[in-house]
Amino acid sequence: MTTLYGLKNCDTCRKATKWLDRFGVPYTFVDYRDSKPTPETLVEWAGKAGGFDALVNKSSTTWRQLPDGRKAPGSQAEWTLLLREYPQLVRRPVVVRDDGGFSQGFSDNGFKKLFG
């Protein structure tokens, strides 16, 4: 089974769900504004993404509007606090498969590789 984490009104998440529907890939969609990821989940995602810096969309409006002091978390705890407060900062969608497969963002070729 595949879980797609994102925001229901995000264009990229919509493209990803349409792709999964078109190719018959069963999935569950979780809007992480409604169901915020736990700190443990955020740490796991960061590990798979290559760190918290890679997990965050730094070109987003939300990131640009943060006070400068919030843009440089110095610890894992500060990162998880920031991402639980602003889940929309996570680059989306986040795709987690039961077999350990993980991806972030959407591209046709990326999904073809992930789902064969």
Number of strands: 4
Which word captures the global form?
globular
Sheet of most strands: 4 strands, mixed
What's the N-to-C terminus distance? 14 Å
Word description of this protein:
The protein has about 120 residues and is of the alpha+beta class. The protein is about 45% helix and about 15% strand. The protein contains 6 helices and 4 strands; from the N terminus they run βαβααααββα. The protein has helices spanning about 10-20, 40-50, 50-55, 60-65, 75-85, 110-115, and strands spanning about 1-5, 25-30, 95, 100-105. Strands 2-1-3-4 form a 4-stranded mixed beta sheet, sandwiched between helices. The longest helix is centred in the first third of the chain and has 12 residues, at about 10-20. The two termini are about 15 Å apart. The model has no long low-confidence stretch (mean pLDDT about 95).
Any key phrases for this structure?
single chain, 116 residues, alpha+beta, 4-stranded mixed β-sheet
Q: Summed up, what is this model?
A:
The chain is of the alpha+beta class and 116 residues long. The protein has helices at residues 11-22, 39-49, 52-55, 61-65, 76-85, 108-115, and strands at 2-6, 27-31, 94-97, 102-104.
List the helices and strands and how they pair.
Layout: E1 2-6, H1 11-22, E2 27-31, H2 39-49, H3 52-55, H4 61-65, H5 76-85, E3 94-97, E4 102-104, H6 108-115
Parallel strand pairs: 1-2
Antiparallel strand pairs: 1-3, 3-4
